[in-house]
Design goal:
This protein has about 475 residues and is of the alpha+beta class. Among the domains are: about 100 residues; about 70 residues, no CATH class; about 70 residues, no CATH class. The strands form two sheets. It has an eight-stranded mixed sheet with strand order 1-10-9-2-3-6-5-4. The protein has a two-stranded antiparallel ribbon with strand order 7-8. Helix 21 packs across helix 22. The N terminus is likely disordered.
Length: about 475
């Protein structure tokens, strides 16, 4: 069925090209493959509050249309429930403020530079942005000028399917053939990829994010050539903004497929040495979140280069810092390394991530020990299982502090003595490969006896000297 609709959309592209069409206005019912889901999505977009905003603008001689992700998802037939409803308007932002303040609405100035205000209705915020064109750009910021043309506003946006507008009557306005690109799941820059990227170099990262989310991981080869020729300019984009895009790019289980086309860019930004996400997939090791996938990419990158990115900031986020600092010198010290005290000593998720890192590191370096004729792939899977079992065992967790012995002791001894005991017992636990809770209790008892004997001798010496 999907093939049928893709073919139909391709035919539509051809017919529009023959007709020389630059603008397309259609109703939802004219969309290929219109379904009840799509009709329901219209109701989610054109809610009572959204129609109220559009009516208020119209009553004052202006027009408002929903623009961006909500309309794109509607055309694609995907959910619009988690997509923000943004409105583009012909009204200047100061006029928008006056209109909705006169309606006793809460109005927040959220982007004066770009003409954006947020109107709050029934606890929901709606961004209303004045139509604009970019007069001057430097690859990061733009100097803008207001316009009353929806077509001119569409030309300064990034991708064709992000420049679709919907009016209050449900009609969809398309100035860049975005409907057909949406139907074909094709991520395409408006007019010129090079021009759009030079306006804002973060669009390189946004391209990969949208390919991963909507483009079935299929990058356009010509577009990749342009991206790779401009990738060095990402140096002017803050690392925080890049990481936000990367977390979104690697949000799905299949997102490992994006590393290969992104490799030159990831090497440019972080100095990525290999493709750890592909290795994880090949080994059957599941990475549970976008953050885990990002941590894995960063761990197999150039640490000095990553820290250089943060030279104007205090430090990388804690979750990145912990991953970068984790060291596992040799196979013989693996289990000890997993026990070593760190900010997440008893955090099973973090330990699980470290196990994945260890296995991939050893596999990538060709250091997985094979037994009984195993191939490296099988040996890596066996090691992963062994280390995972170890992390889930009592030998990898410091549980002494929760033992009945420790609880009773807290009632009898001072906090100072308990603190010294805990620290000494933890060090003992870390130094032994298989120290159990019972071993820790025996050590603690001996520690207490030794300390009491020492205190007694010190008191005796004090009395004699007195």
């Amino acid at each position: 069925m999907k093939v049928f609709w893709k073919t139909l959309a391709a035919c539509a592209v051809f017919l529009m090209a023959l007709a020389g069409a630059t603008e397309r206005v259609i109703t939802v019912e004219e969309l290929p493959g219109v379904s009840d889901t799509i009709r329901q999505n219209v109701k989610h977009i054109l809610t009572k509050d959204v129609l109220f905003i559009m009516k208020c603008l119209k009553d004052h001689g202006y027009e408002g249309r929903v623009v961006g992700g909500a309309v794109r998802n509607l055309v694609m037939g995907t959910s619009t429930s988690d997509t923000d409803i943004d409105i583009a308007s012909t009204a200047p932002h100061d006029v928008v403020t006056k209109i909705f303040e006169s309606e006793n609405c809460t109005v927040r100035q959220t982007g004066d530079v770009h003409g954006t205000v947020t109107v709050v209705l029934n606890g929901e915020g709606y961004e209303i942005t004045t139509l604009r064109i970019d007069k001057k750009t430097d690859g990061r910021k733009a100097i803008v000028e207001q316009t009353d043309s929806f077509e001119l506003d569409s030309k300064r946006r990034d991708f064709t399917f992000n420049a679709l507008y919907m009016g209050a009557d449900g009609k969809i306005f398309d100035y860049n053939d975005g409907i057909n690109d949406a139907l074909l799941r094709r991520v395409k820059f408006i007019e010129s990829a090079e021009k759009r990227i030079r306006e804002d170099y973060l669009r390189i990262m946004r391209y990969f994010r949208f390919v991963a989310r909507y483009g079935n991981f299929q990058c356009d080869e010509e577009c990749l050539k342009i991206i790779n020729s401009l990738k060095s300019n990402l140096s002017i984009i803050s690392i925080q903004r890049i990481l936000v895009e990367l977390e979104k790019t690697f949000s799905s289980d299949d997102s490992y497929k994006m590393v290969a086309p992104m490799l030159p860019v990831l090497q440019e930004i972080f100095g990525l040495r290999c493709d750890p996400l592909k290795i994880c997939h090949d080994l059957g090791i599941k990475l549970d979140s976008a953050k885990e996938r990002l941590c894995m990419l960063l761990k197999f990158s150039d640490e000095a280069k990553i820290r250089e990115k943060y030279k104007y900031n205090d430090n990388p986020p804690a979750y990145i810092n912990d991953v970068l600092q984790f060291r596992c010198p040799s196979i013989s010290e693996i289990k000890k390394s997993l026990k070593v005290k760190n900010a997440y000593a008893n955090d099973t998720k973090t330990k699980a991530l470290f196990v994945k890192y260890i296995v991939i590191q050893l596999y990538n370096d060709g250091k997985i020990p094979c037994k009984d004729g195993q191939i490296p792939l099988d040996a890596a899977r066996a090691l992963f299982t062994e280390l995972t079992d170890f992390c889930n065992s009592k030998y990898s967790q410091f549980t002494f502090s929760k033992s009945d012995f420790a609880v009773d002791l807290r009632k009898q001894e001072s906090n100072k003595k308990i603190g010294a005991l805990m620290e000494s017992t933890r060090k003992y636990w870390e130094s032994k490969d298989d120290a159990s809770e019972e071993d820790c209790i025996e050590f603690a008892k001996k520690f207490l006896i030794d300390n009491k004997e020492r205190d007694f001798k010190n008191k005796k010496k004090t009395k004699i000297s007195a």
